[in-house]
Write the structure tokens for this entry.
Amino acid sequence: MRSRWWRTLAITALVGAGVVVVGWFALAVLPGWAVGSTAQLSATERATELGTARGQSITLVSALGALVVAGFGIDRHFLDKDKQRLDRDKHLTEQFDNAIGRLTATDPLARAGGVRTLFRLMVASSTDHTLVAASICDMLRQYAIPGTSDRYRLPLDLIAGVEALRDRPARPESGPLDLTGVQLPGSDWHGARLIGARFADAISPADLSGADLSDADLSEARCGGIGLRRTNLRHATLTGTDLTGADLTDAELVGADAVRAQLANAVLTGAELSGANLRNADLHRARLRGARMAAGRSVTDLTGANLSETDLTGVDLSAVHGLTDAQVGTAIVDNDTTFPAGVNHPRLRPDPPR
């Protein structure tokens, strides 16, 4: 306290001395310089000239003083802004630490509260957006595991985590979401941005069976082997998505954009594919038995799709777009498989083992 008092006194003394020096210079020295030689001036004229010069000096010094005061004001403004930012950052850090602590609670309701607090922080702070999103993904990977949920009801903390990621602000992110192995059947991802999201690795595929992924963007997502039975993927974006070996039994892909999707060895038995865009998709050895390719004017586009060894038994392909003889030459078909006009029925093959 005493050091602060001495510092204030020293600054006040320096400012006072500066005012005295500037005043002396403005009233005594500067006017003399301005008037110059007095040889040709009478005393009255000289006094008048000095008075005029002093007035001009005072005006100049006043203007300079105003600029200095304005400079101090601007500096103080930015200092106050910095202090406010630091106080805000401290408050956000305290909230973040508190929310993270609640994620370790044993009660799913308490964890759900922590997730919702994190979501508020993510909305309020673009700087912390990526950190919060990663923390929510960590929570889902930890708690969305086999045995913690069923297809009819998810625990409150998992619902809160899905909602937070689904509704997070649209901002640039340093990397895709890591949701490897999460078990979230029946979860609501409608319209979610899941570009490049990682749902599976070599040993831990996720399960989103029965989930609502309609209008979601899963471009370039890594979903190999993922469980998507009866999942709603209507009008989803699956451009370049890796769905190798995924289980899409009875899934709805009406109007889905699956250009260049990797669907090799995927199970699409009974899937609804009317209106889906499968241009250049890889369906090598995929199982499409019973899949529906047309509904009214909505038909599937198979232009350039790889159908080698694809199981098309019983599939009505009569209305699809882009199909050629070359594409179906090695496909597995039967007498119930139908093709568009101009495409020849390939040699019948025995039914594959069930």
User: Anything to note?
Assistant: The chain has two domains: 91-175, 177-354. The radius of gyration is 37 Å.
